[in-house]
Amino acid sequence: MKSTRNWLTTSVVGLVLALASNTFAGSPYAPVKAARTIPKAPATTTEEVADEEKLRPLLDKLSELSQAIDRNAQSPQVWQYHLEQAEVLLRLAAQSRQKEREDILHMAVDAYSSAALLCPREQPVGLQRLRELPARLAQYFPGSPAILYSVQQGIEADYTLELEKTGGDKVKAEEYHCKRLMQFARQNSEFPEAAKAVLQAAHIHESLGQNEEACRCYRLLIDRFPDNPAARKAGGALWRLGDKHQPMSLELPLLYGAAGSGSSALHLDELRGRLVVVYFWTSTSEHVEEDFRQLKQLTDRYAGRGMEVVYVNMDNDASQARAFLSGRLTAGVHVHQPGGIESSVAERYGIQSLPQAFLVGRDGSLLKHSLSIERLEAEIALQMPRRR
218 with 298, same domain? Predict the structure, then answer.
């Protein structure tokens, strides 16, 4: 479930205080009476002073609601504060310049989403408001990207509720989720978000072991959205899911220089003859610390029998990886590919989530992909020659 957010962070207040005074034509949202006064931020022009005074009632109300959410985070009624917060944010968006308006509208959508997930199931007012939101945004903010964003958030909320309704049956809920995503893609095929929805559906099918459905989605991406980055990732995924074992190629710079070797990069071909685990990760990946511990244990157990681990860090800055690894015991080769799941390596192999491991055979071909560390040991054991 989406965690609640404190909407009046310093950055949000700074953004709001810079809003212009023009009011969106025909807006139905009237300013809310101030509940208390926020100290004035210094203004540099007469126009900024006027803008601040005009927006102060809304700022005061947002501050009041933010404090109420913090005080009542565990209350069954907290959804009502999120709902009211969303309405105030819409009023604020109606009085903003175009540049700032989109940020505020996205915040409003998130507040509606929180209300939808937190409201009582027998009183689904928040959910109903979220479902009505795309039409409201289209009426009062035509052409706003927040319209599609609100549809997407509605799909995610419906998935969470479907999971509850099915008693935690993840397969049924995920299949319902895929159906909604594909419906969204068909109805909004002219927008980039459509390709992202198809890619998400493909990833879900793949995670459920429904590779045929996943491949159908990947092929659809390539056919319908050939110029979208998602199509390139789909091509990598189809390669990964192919029936025949294909050679895996990887050439990346070393995270740490190899002293005295003169080499600054790893070529996966150099490890032919060994069973290779290729572990893709970032320093912010979930479970990565525990994964490193288990990979060290696997290396201790199998390195003498021909296993090697290649750690592919995908942080944007290599120094983040080196800082994370400082003081940790690892055994293997560390390389760096910036860009995370948007990187060229992620595109080539259709990687959509981190961390995960690939298993490469002694002949350099991909044996298994998208492995968790828990599954990895069993796959390694199957590839090891039996002791005599």
Answer: no
